[in-house]
């Protein structure tokens, strides 16, 4: 009986133990399994992301934290796992988070009818065809000058001067004597009349001489056009000869707007192009006209040629020597239906131009370096001659960030381009020296002139001028070029540097928009 009780007691404990183990497995087994899955998933996510410092991109970590150099928060750079089989080995993959942080933006390119906005600066000038010299047709002395100053308005037929002429008095006397012999020698009278007509004596004046029978040594010089006196060449009491110019009179009902066009813009300008211009003296009003003439000769100093626009001058608002600025929307017919890309998409590597093209159909955004051949520069854009296809997507903002990522990964970039055999060249080892100059300037035309001048020096690989900071960043071979040499060349084209100052004559020859000195 006692043994039976003991056995039942142990059996009861065993059953309770088994039940406890079963309940523990039910309640905690799945939780443990889920925890393992979560840990595994979390671990996988941490391993997927590469973290870096925006100030020190050489710092890379597989988990978030602080930069050991500057203590800034590390930011996600890209995903190292979960790649796409379609991604090219040289492509740069960047996570969506990193794209958002770097503000990388893309644009789908297309074919367009390119239009180049050309800025021209010039002055209003007198229409030479409407300017006439008021000349004397007889020898003598100016007895009285009736137009006394430049700018005075004259009318056609108005007497502008009285000239004392003994020759005229002799000719009048010959006329009177010939009239007495008209019945015997009528040809003699006619010859005397013709002599006076050659001196611009009118038929009415000749008839008056014959009627009165008296002579006068004073002849009137009359204006032969309407206009404004632009130059006065004589004074009262001066002796003059036949053909002497007394003054020049210009008709200002029509004037010329004369603009200076740089030689790089000449291929895009032609006679007949519509042009709109404004005047500082008449703010808010837009004048228009057509290019009527392009000077075939180029000024060797300013490298410009004259472009003429004929315009009417109603109300006499346009006055000679007024400053004018014009904008021409030149249609580039020779580049019709070509690819046009924003300037912000292009990275310059000396003579090469590169862009980053986004690869299609990838899980993680991927960008591929592409070298392009650029055509003319437009207003904020470039025409692309080759290297890009219609419909491709380019990085138009943040291209430098993508290139920096490529450099960190040792892939093709601005600093690591391929040679003709496909081998990567580390250009950072060939550029030699990086330096900076402070260069004066005020517009995009200045930027183009400064960078072209710097890049034109043998040994200079790259030159980028920042309009806001006025800093010129240079990469050059110090065995072929020096900073002093580059600075002198830039000053020679009219831009002051922190090492050299441009000559005043060269500076003053710059277009009005480029004048930067206070």
User: Which CATH-level-2 architecture of the largest domain?
Assistant: Beta Barrel
Let me know the largest β-sheet: 9 strands, antiparallel
Compute the CA-based radius of gyration. 43 Å
Low-confidence stretches: 26-47, 79-83, 419-431
CATH topology of the largest domain: OB fold (Dihydrolipoamide Acetyltransferase, E2P)
- What proportion strand? 25-35%
List how many beta strands DSSP finds: 31
Q: At the first level of CATH, what is the class of the largest domain?
A: Mainly Beta
Total count of domains: 5
Distance between the termini: 121 Å
CATH homologous superfamily descriptor of the largest domain: RNA polymerase II/Efflux pump adaptor protein, barrel-sandwich hybrid domain
Fraction in helix:
10-25%
């Amino acid at each position: 009986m006692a043994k039976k009780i003991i056995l039942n007691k142990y059996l009861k404990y065993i059953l309770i133990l088994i039940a406890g183990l079963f309940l523990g497995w039910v309640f905690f087994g799945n939780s443990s399994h889920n925890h393992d899955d979560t840990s595994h998933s979390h671990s996988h996510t941490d391993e997927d992301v590469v973290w870096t410092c925006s100030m020190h991109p050489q710092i890379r970590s597989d988990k978030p934290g602080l930069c050991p150099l500057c203590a800034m928060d590390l930011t996600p750079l890209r995903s190292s796992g979960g790649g796409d089989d379609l991604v090219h080995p040289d492509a740069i993959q960047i996570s969506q988070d990193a794209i958002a942080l770097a503000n990388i933006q893309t644009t789908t390119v297309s074919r367009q009818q390119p239009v180049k906005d050309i800025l021209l600066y010039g002055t209003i000038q007198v229409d030479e065809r409407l300017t006439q010299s008021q000349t004397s047709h007889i020898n003598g002395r100016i007895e009285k000058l009736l137009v006394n100053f430049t700018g005075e308005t004259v009318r056609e037929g108005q007497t502008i001067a009285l000239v004392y002429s003994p020759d005229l008095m002799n000719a009048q006397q010959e006329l009177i004597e010939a009239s007495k012999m008209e019945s015997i020698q009528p040809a003699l009278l006619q010859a005397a009349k013709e002599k006076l007509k050659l001196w611009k004596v009118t038929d009415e004046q000749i008839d008056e001489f014959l009627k009165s029978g008296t002579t006068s040594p004073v002849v009137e010089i009359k204006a032969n056009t309407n206009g404004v006196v632009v130059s006065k060449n004589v004074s009262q009491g001066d002796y003059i000869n036949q053909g002497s110019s007394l003054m020049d009179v210009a008709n200002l009902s029509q004037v010329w707007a004369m603009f200076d066009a740089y030689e790089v813009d000449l291929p895009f300008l032609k006679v007949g192009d519509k042009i709109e211009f404004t005047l500082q003296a008449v703010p808010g009003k837009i004048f228009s006209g057509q290019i009527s003439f392009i000077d075939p000769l180029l000024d060797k100093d300013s490298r410009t040629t004259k472009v003429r626009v004929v315009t009417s001058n109603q109300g006499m608002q346009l006055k000679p020597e007024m400053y004018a600025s014009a904008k021409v929307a030149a249609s580039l017919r020779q580049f019709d239906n070509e690819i046009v890309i924003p300037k912000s998409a292009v990275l310059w590597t000396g003579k090469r131009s590169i862009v980053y093209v986004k690869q299609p159909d990838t899980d993680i955004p991927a960008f591929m370096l592409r070298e392009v051949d650029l055509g003319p520069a437009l207003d904020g854009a470039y025409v692309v001659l080759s290297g890009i296809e219609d419909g491709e997507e380019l990085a138009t903002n943040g291209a430098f960030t993508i290139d920096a990522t490529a450099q960190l990964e040792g892939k093709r970039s601005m600093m690591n381009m391929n040679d003709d055999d496909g081998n990567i060249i580390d250009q950072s080892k060939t550029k030699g020296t990086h330096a900076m100059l402070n260069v004066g300037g005020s517009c995009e035309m200045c930027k183009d002139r400064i960078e072209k001048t710097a890049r034109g020096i043998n040994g200079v690989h790259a030159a980028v001028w920042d309009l806001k900071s006025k800093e010129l960043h240079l990469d050059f071979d110090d065995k072929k070029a020096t900073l002093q040499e580059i600075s002198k060349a830039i000053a020679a084209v009219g831009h002051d540097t922190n090492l050299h100052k441009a000559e005043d004559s060269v500076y003053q020859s710059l277009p009005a928009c480029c004048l930067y000195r206070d």
